[in-house]
Amino acid sequence: MTARRSRDGVLSSVLLLAANILIPAAILVFATGFFPYKPLLPGLATYDTVVDYGDPPAAPFDRVVFMVIDALRSDFVYSENSGFLFTQSLIRDGAALPFTAHATSPTVTMPRLKAITTGSIPSFLDVVLNIDEGDESSSLASQDTWLAQMKAKGTGKLVMYGDDTWLKLFPGTFDRAEGTTSFFVSDFTEVDNNVTRHIAGELQNDDWNTMVLHYLGLDHIGHKGGPRSPHMVAKQREMDGIVRQIYTAIDSEAHLQSTLFVVCGDHGMNDAGNHGASSAGETSPALVFISPKIKALQSNLQSPMPEDESFQYYSTVEQSDLAPTLAALLGFPVPKNNLGALIPDFLPFWPNRRDQVQLLMRNAHQIKEIVVAAFGQQIFETDTDVADFTEFKSDYQELAHDWKELAESYGRDDAKLIPSILKWLHHAQDVLSSMASNYDMSRLYFGQAAAAAALIAALIAAARFTNDTAASFIPLSGIVLAYGIMMFASSYVEEEHHFWYWATTAWFTYLGVKGFNQRGNTSGRREILSSAALLLATRVIRSWNQTGQKFAGGPDIVKMYLNTNPALLWYLISATYLWVHQNLIYGLSGLPIWLSYTTAIGLVLAAFTFKVAFTLEDAPELVTDFARFSLRLNFTQDASLIARARAVFIGLALMTAVTILFMLARRRISVGQNGSSTLLTIYTLLALTQSRPQNIPLYLLFNAQRLVLSSSALAHLSPTELSATSLLLQHAAFFALGGTNSIASVDLSSAYNGVASFDVAAVGFLTFVGNWAGSVWWALATYVMLVEERSRRSRRERMAETEGVEEGEGRGGGEGGLWKAHVGVLTVFVAASVVAVMAACTVLRTHLFVWTVFSPKYLYCVAWSLGQHLVVNVLVGGVFYWLGVIEGK
């Protein structure tokens, strides 16, 4: 019997290991098929000699200053509350022509710069590469861009100052350059001053034909404080001053007389100050063409404009339209992979109608070559169907038919031909932009098969380790099934938080009813009260932050009570830090009293004053006099934020190391609790450090829920039910702290705590903790409860003088039975969620929202599976559990 149980345990362990190896393998294989690079036409475009359009018309400009202000939402420039007063005066005087440039998702810097410079639609994979500052695989060095065309003209050098993404995209392109990292979001000032200091000198030089400036400070302010940050208007005025400086030089310096000045945003931002998704604010950056020569167009538009919630000011153009427009205005061929259409507002620069038609036909012919490269020349030669592209057949047949009419009409009635060409250009742009990606279907299917194999292995392992009845799996099965179905609806993916809130509420109700039925009237009432307390805490937690997409800006506790009442906010924050302080003293009670009190007070005070200093820099309107006074208590008034954060991290690391050493030595660092509880308290202080101030009081509610679970319902939960509880609370906590399935909700505000310069490992770790802080807390809290449960079972076993693991360590589980059972159940859900998300992305790959909803969900699925599950629940949680086992022996 013992040998058979041992063999079962080994087999189950192998299956569990295999499942957790297959999950990342499946994710990688599927991703390589779902996010491939699209094929591009090689080489630089030249003026077409095959079609005789005549000599290209003369360009009105010979050099360009291209100024990108990161996250420059349209209303930041055009509205009545804007700080761009000088720019608005140029619009009124006709020296500036304004547009709202539509930026397609993903609205992050790298793919947007690709769209701006090539005129193409970038791959969604660029949203991942955008995060890796060291990545060079996304280089545009070999692709046709307007920068490459300006370099090929040979009329001057190319210079660049600002976001070093340009240097990564265009290695070897710029003759003079200085890059600044785009991810150090705590810096509002130096990151822009490092750009501005070069401008005066470069405006005096006449050896360049292209100057690129990319300012980051406004984007950083948005990430830290949102679009209504008190720093925002001041930054806009600073940027407006740069516009004045450059325009004044163009207007007065002889060598700059034919300079085109373009001011634009790469993307906008949402109400939270983030970007990456497809809300109106994120997809609506400003685009302004500036030059004294533009006065000849006699636009003289109204400025400023009234506030517009849709952010659509003046005419709306596609961001990709920049490439062919610059080609016409600066005199070079349209880049080969361009999908943009020349902005017709500039056609009056060429009074001759024949010149206008030629420019548009060259643009149309270039786009026609992209269609030929995709489907062959025969589509424009015959009326046959487009094989293998039935879903786009009618669109491409219509394009081919209309192109023939344009080609036949060229040279006849130019006045009537212009609107026909513009219509064809925009139709072609819509069709090509919406064409499905070149998915590798074999990889998609293979990845799903691997994920399905992981699910089967996890199911077998979980059933063996938990040794529960079939009825215990019913709630978990319901969660898995409902979640899987939900992944096929875009609105449910966007509003996923409701699923976890409702499921958690239903679960706690179920626990209360179950406890009442099992324990009878007296004890049952206690279970009902415990369930009510859990439900009340859950109700408050779900109201803390309004998240998702539909009601993202709606009222919640943070907006209605904490942001408007800083005193209440700091009372709650102080209460949270005092709770951690008391827990820390209790957790270190095995040390000499002077040492435990000194350590606890010093570390908590350092963490609290860092949070005050951080908030004072980030959102000073939230800091009360009481909070400011605390900065003087630890005599570090002059310390920098980096030094303060490092002091906290070093203190946490040292305390963690000491606690682990005590546990390995089988000594209690606390008189009344296990070392795992002390480690949880230490992590709580890290979570508070990485959380926004408004979210800090949530940890009081999390702890209240944990205490209720530990003292009541936990004693009656089967391993499967305990894991289901942990699963629900981990996900509910993620959304309660403001998380969503949108890339725009990734919080970078704490990503640079203690970091002086970009480091992918440090920033990646801090970003993950900052966004999954609540989920990690519940993962570790579950292991604390597992250690406590194991201690209770050990006491019962000793009292009953039994042998083996009959009390519930799990069939064949040995010392790690509870851990393996818990990991097994979590692996079942993770594998099932990966299968569901992959299936949804495959089935809905041609869906309108595939890049705005389902692809971001896949990336979040990767983070949940690899980061939260494998790293936190399996690896870190396993260390928690085994340290508790060693300590308890």
TrEMBL record:
Gene Ontology biological process terms from the UniProt entry: GPI anchor biosynthetic process
Source species, domain of life: Eukaryota
Keyword S-adenosyl-L-methionine carried by entry: no
Metabolic or biological pathway, per its Swiss-Prot or TrEMBL entry: Glycolipid biosynthesis; glycosylphosphatidylinositol-anchor biosynthesis
Record's subcellular location: Endoplasmic reticulum membrane
Keyword Cell membrane among record annotations: no
Record's keyword terms, sorted: Endoplasmic reticulum, Glycoprotein, GPI-anchor biosynthesis, Membrane, Transferase, Transmembrane, Transmembrane helix
Membrane topology: Multi-pass membrane protein
Family of the protein in this entry: Belongs to the PIGG/PIGN/PIGO family. PIGG subfamily.
Protein name: GPI ethanolamine phosphate transferase 2
